[in-house]
């Protein structure tokens, strides 16, 4: 799969001076555009549009300094309809405007051309199983938090601590299917997996549509009783997230919290996906774990929505 990813990047590189349809790039990698963007972000540490902009501005920077084309000609060549838009993009990468860079012969920032290869970092096996699930709902509370790849996520911890006993008890009552118990669900709002990218972070339980509908009706009744005022956060009435039917890769993990989990999340996208006949699909990533003090050992389970890669053969 990494060979196909590199072929896709070669295709992209040859077209940096023109409009590129990312769906065409993804087809060369034999994956969906959704998975290509997610996998690229995980492997490269930056979203695909950021990489494309930096590469274009690297090439544009060389032409700006060469002085053979007008600044407007350089802007048009790399897809910018105005000098102002080009100058903004140029400054965001190089920290200086193109005109000033040409006048002063400034030192510019280069984004190297990227390619991917397999690096063997250890012999630890990743334990996983593939599960087919019917549609269900996550019923709980959500908050918008930043991704944190290393160490405690203070915003996520604060969301957990904000839950009152009644809400937690109600979640436990509603939990009636895998993954059983109080879980967290991460809904990515963009294709970026960069540190600091915002996600919707749910704490809740997996349940059926009937129980979730009853919970929604209870919330509506409470809002009506409060004369349409927002339901207080301390209320045990919960929100719901619909999750469609599909295939899940379920990874078991044991290690120090939260480092082992953060490493598992990284390894799923950088090691497991490139070496298995599956790609990611839209949907929340679910985590079942027992909260412990930072550094303490704990068992966890990560559920990632997947589908078989096009052209792969069933074993």
Mean pLDDT across all amino acids: 86
CATH class of the largest domain: Alpha Beta
Count of strand segments: 9
Order of helices and strands: HHHHHHHEEHHEEHEEHEEE
Output the number of helix runs: 11
Q: Please tell me what the overall shape is.
A: elongated
CATH topology of the largest domain: Multidrug-efflux Transporter 1 Regulator Bmrr, Chain A
Q: Which architecture of the largest domain does the CATH hierarchy give at level 2?
A: Alpha-Beta Barrel
Question: What is the radius of gyration computed over CA atoms, rounded to a whole number of angstroms?
Answer: 23 Å
How much helix is in the residues? 25-40%
Largest sheet: 9 strands, antiparallel
Return the structural class: alpha+beta
> CATH H level of the largest domain: which superfamily?
Regulatory factor, effector binding domain
* Domains, number: 2
Beta-strand portion reads: 15-25%
Structural description of this entry:
With 315 residues, the chain is an alpha+beta fold. It folds into two domains: 2-104, Arc Repressor Mutant, subunit A (Orthogonal Bundle), CATH 1.10.10.60; 128-308, Multidrug-efflux Transporter 1 Regulator Bmrr, Chain A, CATH 3.20.80. It is 40% helix and 22% strand. It has helices at residues 2-13, 22-28, 33-44, 48-66, 71-77, 83-94, 98-104, 154-161, 165-174, 209-225, 259-272, and strands at residues 128-133, 136-146, 183-188, 198-207, 239-243, 246-256, 278-280, 285-289, 297-308. Strands 1, 2, 3, 4, 5, 6, 7, 8 and 9 form a nine-stranded antiparallel beta sheet that branches. Strand 8 and strand 9 (297-308) form a beta hairpin. Helix 4 packs across helix 6 (83-94). The longest helix is centred in the N-terminal third of the chain and has 19 residues, at 48-66. The model has no long low-confidence stretch (mean pLDDT 86).
